[in-house]
Design a protein that fits this description.
Layout lengths: L1 H23 L6 H6 L2 H4 L6 E6 L4 E6 L5 E7 L2 H10 L14 H6 L1 H12 L6 H21 L7 E4 L7 H10 L16 E2 H8 L11 H8 L5 E8 L4 E8 L12 E4 L13 H16 L9 E5 L6 H12 L7 E3 L6 H32 L4
Parallel strand pairs: 1-4, 4-5, 6-9, 9-10
Antiparallel strand pairs: 1-2, 2-3, 6-7, 7-8
Helix pairs in contact: 1-13, 7-8, 9-13, 11-12
């Protein structure tokens, strides 16, 4: 993973330094020479971002169009999907999986992997869970295709932090549906982007605004503010919480290591504002996740997501609990909570596509520039 990011950083530095050399060369200072290698001239068609939020209860899909406008498209779920996410939240559902920590683990997991390969060669989903994931993803993509009037070949899915939801399942679900992911070249871990990352990006945090310009985007990203942020998801079936200190919505471990999931604290289990035990449970987990960071510094932003996140008493408990833990009242963000994470995923998807296109354009331009003696 470290070597990947070093390689990617080196490539970015190479592209930016090359751009500087081109501009300093007299032959490249004409408008025609500069415009020849701009991103838009190399883009055969406009780029769109498609984000899927596969949450604890349901999935949502959102798109960012060619003009950068966000569209919340559709929400869908199945009984099988809801049962699967609940099961995968349990530690007893954990099993060996790639990437392995040792050769011994890989050997032990071979029988399970052989079964998956046989199913795939027969044209079936690699496992029952893969089939359930694929069914929901296909439904969401179908709704997005109807909305856009075009075929979707690439998406960015994000998921909640479930202990037994592994990257291989998401990878195989996309492969079964012949869908690509812009994160395929990242380390395996980063294919499964956390729902919290999408929520962060959905509020315009941790992402650049000049995404169609690689140089400007990289400069923006280097100056993004760092926040201590808490993401609280509240749906009918579950309550989840995560805490991170980060300036980036993607490419960080920020949302990976402080998480908690409670499938007995969804809004459907609530008997009202006077259900003391229920709300005490919500407050306990908020306090637990706040204290999981040993620094125990003030949270600056709280992002509420999920279809039940507009509940007024939920807001009261969140605010009261956090104010009891710190001096400053954090900014609480609750805008379009059902779709904010998928909208953020679509924004991340669009930036990754522009980043990939920009790098490919410059790599294609290099031989011509060298042959012309411009470098």
């Amino acid at each position: 993973m470290v070597s990947y990011f070093l390689t990617r950083t080196a490539l970015t530095v190479f592209v930016l330094s090359t751009f500087s050399l081109v501009l300093s060369n007299p032959l490249a200072q004409s408008v025609e020479a500069v415009e020849k290698y701009t991103l838009r001239d190399n883009a055969a068609e406009c780029l769109i971002g498609v984000g899927l939020d596969l949450s604890t209860d349901y999935g949502t899909v959102a798109v960012v169009d060619c003009d950068g406008k966000e569209h919340a498209v559709a929400q869908a779920t199945t009984a099988d999907y809801q049962a699967m996410t609940r099961r995968l939240s349990l530690t007893e559902s954990e099993h060996l999986h790639p990437p392995y920590s040792s050769f011994s683990e890989e050997v032990q997991d071979m029988p399970r992997q052989w079964k998956r390969q046989v199913r795939k060669r027969m044209g079936q989903p690699a496992s029952t869970d893969v089939g359930i994931l694929a069914e929901l993803i296909q439904s969401l993509c179908g709704k997005a295709e109807s909305y856009l009037g075009q075929t979707i070949t690439e998406v960015l899915p994000i998921t909640p932090h479930l202990t037994a939801l592994y990257d291989e399942d998401l990878t195989d679900a996309l492969e079964y549906l012949e869908l690509k992911s812009p994160l395929k070249s990242y380390p395996v871990k980063y294919l499964q982007t956390q729902e919290s990352c999408g929520a962060f990006a959905g509020h315009g945090l941790g992402i650049c605004k000049s995404y169609s310009n690689l140089t400007a985007c990289e400069e923006e990203k280097s100056n993004l503010p760092t926040y201590r942020v808490m993401i609280l998801s509240y749906t009918k079936e579950a309550f989840t919480a995560s805490l991170a200190v980060t300036d980036q919505a993607l490419g960080t471990h920020g949302f990976d290591y402080m998480n908690i999931e409670a499938f007995d604290l969804g809004s459907s289990y609530n008997d009202g504002p006077f259900d003391g035990d229920y709300w005490d449970g919500i407050g306990y987990y908020i306090q637990y996740i706040w204290q999981s960071d040993h620094a125990r510094e003030d949270v600056q932003k709280v992002i509420l997501i999920g279809e039940s996140a507009t509940d007024e008493h939920f807001h009261f408990v969140v605010k009261e609990t956090i104010e009891s833990l710190q001096e400053e009242t954090p900014e609480i963000l609750v805008e379009d909570p059902t779709f904010v994470a998928s909208r953020g995923a679509a924004q991340l998807h669009l930036r990754l596509k522009y980043e990939e296109l920009s790098e490919n354009c410059w790599l294609e331009a290099m031989p011509g520039l060298v042959n012309q003696g411009d470098l």
